[in-house]
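Researcher: I'm comparing several assemblies side by side, and this is the next one on my list. It has 537 residues spread over two chains. Same procedure as the others: predict the full complex and return the structure.
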Amino acid sequence: MSEVVILGAGIAGHTAALHLSRLLGRQHRITVVSPNSTWNWIPSNIWVGVGKMSKNDVVFPLAPIYRRKGIEYIQAKAVAIRPHGDTDSDRPAVDIVHTSKADAGREQRIRYDYLINATGPQLRFGATEGLGPEHGNTVSVCTADHAVAASARLREVIDRCRAGEHQTLVVGMGHGTCTCEGAAFEYVFNIDNELREAGVRDMARVVYLTNESELGDFGVGGMTFNDKGFQTTSELWTASLFRERGVEAVLGAHVERVEPGRVHFETLDGAHHSMEYDFAMLLPPFGGVPLAAYDRDGTDITPRLFAPNGFMKVDADYSGKPYDQWSAADWPKTYQAQGLDNIWAVGIAFAPPHQISRPRTSANGTPITPSPPRTGMPSGVMGKTVALTIADRIRKGPMAVAHQASMADMGAACVASAGANLRTGSAAAMTMMPVVPDYSRYPTGRDLRETRGELGLSGHWVKLMLHHLFIYKAKGLPGWHLIPE
Amino acid sequence: MPDNPPIPVADLSRAPLPTESMQRYRRNPVVQSWKFAVFNARIMRMVLKGKH
């Protein structure tokens, strides 16, 4: 019997667990270690953050699903990996600390034959002074609880607008190196929609504050679309939406600190600015979840497994070549950890080899560049791919060829709703293929047939459909595996 | 306290605005039903084309 341990139960880890359970049955032990007791369809947190959905619409408990699927579930966080075992055994192990109410703080060492690191992001609100809902002055939609709190604050702002007070709402990125610009983009247009529905749009100034150097970058260097025989850009397409909705945009910004009612930021030209606000939803930068690695004798080998930002090094080219020399081939294909044939890192947990958007620094040397996104659809594909590899290694032997899913061969859809109503809703729906542009295959970096951007009611229907489909899939209900990642 | 220097809001005055007919097109249930089907077909095609 083989033992597979999966660290994390987000999109990547949960997808891997479900597929491993389907592929291996109950002859092998699959264990999921996650500090959270619930699964959250994070893309719909946007709707929770404006009060269109409740927390219960976007989360569900993990334990019953795993019980039904024969997957062992431990509510705990991993703190260290011992890929060569310890002094007691040469079997690899993971050190975990329990997080459930009943068992909080209990330490345990569990052994594995195969390990998937799908720990997701560490939300680094601390990277910017005054950022975040717990110790700072801003709200967030990163978790369902954060989104509930954001919604309550938004209601207060709308009430003040109704009372005749002008309000300034700032939405965007809380640091120069943030990723997930699409989430902030979506939230700002949902807020715009809420203000319009409340009849107070004229009482509010809505500002999108972003580290992108141009609108429509989204951390993927922007996109080129084929539109009625012309090539156009995601920049023009996005700018049109901002102008139409009257949302102001501040570009190339690194938020330095947030005081109650005032956000301070630096822009690419090196100038320092500050802006008053009544409501601020600013996303944090992501880091890897802190995980140490130790050799059998206890030597710290963390730098061998992890990049300085905490993300795990996999089969990518980390030689640090200049941005202009990178190629799509530098991106990982199998997600296998460097030098270890039984550890993989998927989703946000793997270290990207380089930026997709052109790296920029301000005139003062401050990095202001979106980090590469690797959430949603690509995360699910990576989780499934690694599950297939592990299942093959267990069933066919250790020499079974690894499955591949490079982000340079993978498409993705990004649907950013801009109003949630079945008849009057709208969304910016984008598809791109591949996620990482490959200029050796496509003059614009991406396949123009598949890379599209559209605005309209149908996008809202797509977003709603994806919400229900992916929650159905994540619950492992009949036929779940037929729904693509 | 005034903002100093002024907030560098992007100039979007040259961004194209949708026409009335484009706005109707974006809300038309028949057109959008077709767009919905096409978008889903494109996602499926991407899934099938992806080398994974």
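Model: For your comparison table: DSSP finds two helices and no strands in chain B.
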